[in-house]
Backbone:
C-alpha cells in the first residue's frame, strides 16, 4: 500500500514515521495541498492522506480516480472539504479521525478566553520592554459569567466541563441534548435565547449548510453588547465582514479565533516576509480586542499521537475490509438528513 500524504509539516512526518511499523505501507510526503492543480502527484499511489485545507471537489476526485486512488484518509474529523457524493459514485473510500483529544481544542478555546480577558499576551510584551504598567490591562472575573456553547459534541462537552469548573453558568444549543451535561447543570436553550443571554459564546459545531455563517449580521443583532466570541471549530461559522462591523460598533467586545474562512491561503505557512493580500484578516489583526491563532487548537502531543494512530488503523481496516464507524459514507449521511 502506497499513500501520498499532502499538506505535510515536519510534525506530521515525525509522528507517522515513528508509529508506522507496517513494512507493507509506504508513505510519501508532499508539502503542497491536494487540489485539482496538484492531483497528478497521486499517480502510482493507492491512497491519499489529507488535512483540513486540502480541496477534494469533483475535478480533483476525478483525477484521483483516473490515477487509481481508492482511499482517502482524513487527518481530521470534518469532511466538508470533500464532495462526498462524487467520491462515493467513483467508488473511493473515505475514512476520518472522528475524535482526537477533544480536550486539546477545548482547552485552547479557554486559553483564548483567558488571554483576551486578562490580556496576558499584551502584558508579556510590555514586561519584555520594561513596561510594568497595569493601564488598559483590566479584565473581568469568569466566575458566574454566562457562557453559551453552540454544539455539545465531544469538544463542546469538554469545553462545558472546563467552564463549569470556573463556576460559570453554562447554557448550550444543540440538535441533540447531552443528558450527562444537563445533570451537571448545563441548560439547553433555543439559539436565539442563548445568543441574547451569553456573556461569552464559544462555537463547537460542525460546518454544514445550516451552520454556515451562523454568526452573521442578523444573529449578531441579538447578542449582548460587548460579548466575547470564540471560534475554534470552522472558520465559515462566522461571517467575517459582519463580525468586523460588529467589532467596529462595539457589539462584539472580544473576538478569539483559531480558524478563519479563507485560512487555506494563510495558515500553516510562514508569511512574515510576504504581503498579506487578504484585507479581512488584515483588518481583524488591527483590532486590539481580537486574538488570532493559526489553527493550533489540535496541536498537542496527545492529539497528534491519536491522529496518527487512528489514521494508520484506518488503513488496516480498509486493507482488511473491516467495517468501522470511521468510514464516511455519503449515502448514510444523506439518509440521516432525510
Residues:
Amino acid at each position: 500500500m502506497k499513500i501520498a500524504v499532502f499538506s505535510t509539516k515536519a510534525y506530521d512526518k515525525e509522528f507517522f514515521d515513528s508509529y508506522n511499523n507496517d513494512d507493507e505501507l509506504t508513505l510519501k510526503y508532499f508539502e503542497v495541498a491536494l487540489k485539482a492543480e496538484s492531483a497528478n502527484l497521486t499517480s502510482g499511489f493507492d491512497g491519499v492522506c489529507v488535512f483540513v485545507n486540502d480541496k477534494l471537489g469533483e475535478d480533483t476526485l476525478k483525477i484521483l480516480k483516473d490515477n487509481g486512488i481508492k482511499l482517502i484518509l482524513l487527518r481530521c474529523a470534518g469532511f466538508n472539504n470533500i464532495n462526498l457524493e462524487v467520491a462515493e459514485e467513483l467508488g473511493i473510500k473515505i475514512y476520518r479521525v472522528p475524535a482526537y483529544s477533544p480536550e486539546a481544542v477545548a482547552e485552547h478555546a479557554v486559553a483564548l478566553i483567558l488571554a483576551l480577558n486578562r490580556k496576558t499576551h499584551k502584558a508579556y510584551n510590555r514586561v519584555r520592554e520594561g513596561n510594568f504598567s497595569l493601564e488598559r490591562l483590566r479584565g473581568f472575573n469568569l466566575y458566574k459569567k454566562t457562557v453559551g456553547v453552540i454544539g455539545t459534541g465531544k469538544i463542546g462537552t469538554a469545553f462545558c466541563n472546563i467552564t463549569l469548573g470556573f463556576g460559570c453558568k453554562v447554557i448550550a444549543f444543540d440538535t441533540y441534548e447531552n443528558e450527562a451535561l444537563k445533570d451537571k447543570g448545563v441548560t439547553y436553550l433555543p439559539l436565539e435565547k442563548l445568543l441574547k443571554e451569553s456573556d461569552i459564546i464559544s462555537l463547537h459545531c460542525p460546518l454544514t449548510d445550516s451552520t454556515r455563517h451562523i454568526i452573521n449580521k442578523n444573529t449578531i443583532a441579538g447578542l449582548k453588547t460587548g460579548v466575547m466570541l470564540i471560534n475554534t471549530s470552522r472558520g465559515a461559522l462566522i461571517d467575517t465582514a459582519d463580525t468586523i462591523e460588529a467589532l467596529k460598533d462595539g457589539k462584539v467586545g472580544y473576538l478569539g479565533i483559531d480558524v478563519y474562512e479563507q485560512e487555506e491561503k494563510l495558515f500553516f505557512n510562514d508569511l512574515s516576509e510576504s504581503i498579506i493580500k487578504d484585507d479581512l484578516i488584515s483588518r481583524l489583526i488591527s483590532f486590539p480586542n481580537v486574538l488570532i491563532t493559526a489553527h493550533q487548537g489540535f496541536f498537542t502531543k496527545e492529539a497528534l499521537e491519536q491522529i496518527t494512530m487512528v489514521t494508520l488503523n484506518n488503513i488496516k481496516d480498509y486493507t482488511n475490509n473491516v467495517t468501522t464507524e470511521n468510514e464516511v459514507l455519503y449515502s448514510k449521511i444523506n439518509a440521516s438528513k432525510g
Observations:
- The radius of gyration is 21 Å.
- Residues 217 and 245 are 9 Å apart (CA to CA).
- The chain has 13 helices and twelve strands.
